[in-house]
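ugh ok so i messed up the first submission bc i forgot one of the chains. this is the corrected input, ALL of the components this time, i swear. 230 residues overall. if the numbers dont match what u have on ur side tell me asap before i send this to the collaborators (the ones from the other lab, u know who)
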Amino acid sequence: AQSVTQLDSHVSVSEGTPVLLRCNYSSSYSPSLFWYVQHPNKGLQLLLKYTSAATLVKGINGFEAEFKKSETSFHLTKPSAHMSDAAEYFCVVSDRNSGNTPLVFGKGTRLSVIA
Amino acid sequence: DTGVSQNPRHKITKRGQNVTFRCDPISEHNRLYWYRQTLGQGPEFLTYFQNEAQLEKSRLLSDRFSAERPKGSFSTLEIQRTEQGDSAMYLCASSLITTVNNEQFFGPGTRLTVL
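and heres the new structure output, hopefully the right one now
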């Protein structure tokens, strides 16, 4: 069975400072890992995805995530937060070798950005 | 806008009534998923289709819930005899069968409120 643990339910940063959203996963298979963002009253938007190519994955809006198999982690980072980054972020795992499995979401981390 | 549309965007109903939601996936996508998201939680898988065949159902999908995808294009999710616990955001996602990493594209969701 697959699972995702997002270690912080809420993170608050000042505008212009770095962002770190932490995620640990559990998977019996080779995982695909994703980060999705959800702005208020908007749909889920894919930020980035890991699919076994490079372990450091670059996404949209300056976000990055690094896959660390030894630590079973896939933390999301951004060097400098912007006010528009305030949203809910979800870490997601899926079995890469089977396209039939649904996505398994973490509970989410709410990012607040203070001016 | 991912190209996945859902209607209605909001639905308010009284306990005991039936409701039906519609999802139109990206036109060439042959997989279609339904998820449910309650307040403060990540989305949870309900069911999925490959073309018109319903291939998997979650334990969350009680017998009051039924989903169809009659021609392998749009899908409907019906909830009979709604209960207050059904209040949630219902999300639809679609993907291509050839997608090796199971990347799914989400619609904006239908927010259901049961009074």
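quick check: The two ends of chain B are 30 Å apart (CA to CA). that seems consistent at least. Chain B touches chain A at residues 2, 4, 31, 33, 35, 40-45, 48, 50, 55-56, 58, 91, 93, 95, 97, 99-109 (CB under 8 Å).
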